[in-house]
Amino acid sequence: MSGTEKDDDEDVEYGKEYVQTADAALEEARKLLAPLGDSDIWPGWEDCVPTVLRRTVWTPQFQLGKVLHQHRQVQATVEFTWGKARLLSELRDNYGLLPSSKYSSQWYGVYRVFVPGTAIGRFCGTDPTGTVYIGRAGSQRGWSILRTRLMQLSKREHHATQGWDHHSARPQKYPWSSLAVDWAFIEHWQDHKGEKVIGAKRAESFLLESYHDRFGEYPPLNEEG
Fold it and tell me: What is the pTM of this model?
């Protein structure tokens, strides 16, 4: 990946409630956006979940020693290698299907809750991927890792799936047994100062922002914050 932005991700201990609103993620991402370039790959979502997103962004202004570095345009690319989708009910019964907690390469990434084979009407079109929520995992101290986030989803402890059957409309339209999740591991990248940055934050922002640009709104459960 290339490009720049400061990663100010906060470590959130597993078991504590974490809510990253789509509005906050989009606002942060748009601060550094430049006009679309000819080689940008954006926004995607026409007939499938994006596997590559590329966007022209501005580097932040910063001072290194006595040298003031001005804003400049660069291209930021995020690649998504989505794994095999799993039903949430399936994960609840078999945690062996979840990413490992042993290997740090499987700690960081993004995940998507969706209804397989179902198109969902959105404000500016129809989402053919059935996406209802997009999230991320991965923090400096390892509390927020993909395994624990996906485990929360399957146990209905995540805010996106808590009390699913208590909402009269949701289980009628989308029964719990119909919900699935897939995920993609995201590598770290180096910022404009050469410092390592956790890549999951940018990956989530790109997914949310591109979804919003395509359909005029966020996935349904991201709208709730």
Answer: 0.82
When pLDDT is averaged across residues 137-150 and rounded to a whole number, the result is 84
Is there a domain that residue 3 lies in? no
Among 77, 76, 78, 79, CA closest to 3: 76
Q: Has residue 96 got a pLDDT over 80?
A: yes
37 contacts 56 by C-beta, under 8 angstroms:
yes
| pLDDT per residue as tens digits for the range 192-203 | 777 888 999 999
In a domain, residue 16? The reply is no
Angle between helices 22-30 and 200-215 (to 10 degrees): 100
For the chain, how many structural domains are there in total?
1
Tokens of 166: 């208590």
* Cα 198 from Cα 142, distance rounded (Å): 11
Amino acid, res. 68: L
Whole domain around residue 44: which residue ranges? 22-215
Q: For residue 136, which of 29, 41, 2, 3 has the smallest C-alpha distance?
A: 29
- Inter-residue contact 89 to 95 (CB < 8 Å): no
Residue of 17, 16, 20, 15 lying closest to 200 (CA atoms): 20
Q: Is residue 2 part of a domain?
A: no
For 84-107, what is the mean pLDDT? 94
- C-alpha–C-alpha distance, residues 116 and 179, integer Å: 7
Tell whether omega for the bond before 43 is within 30 degrees of 0, i.e. cis.
yes
Q: Which one-letter DSSP state was computed for residue 33?
A: B
* 39 occurs within a structural domain: yes
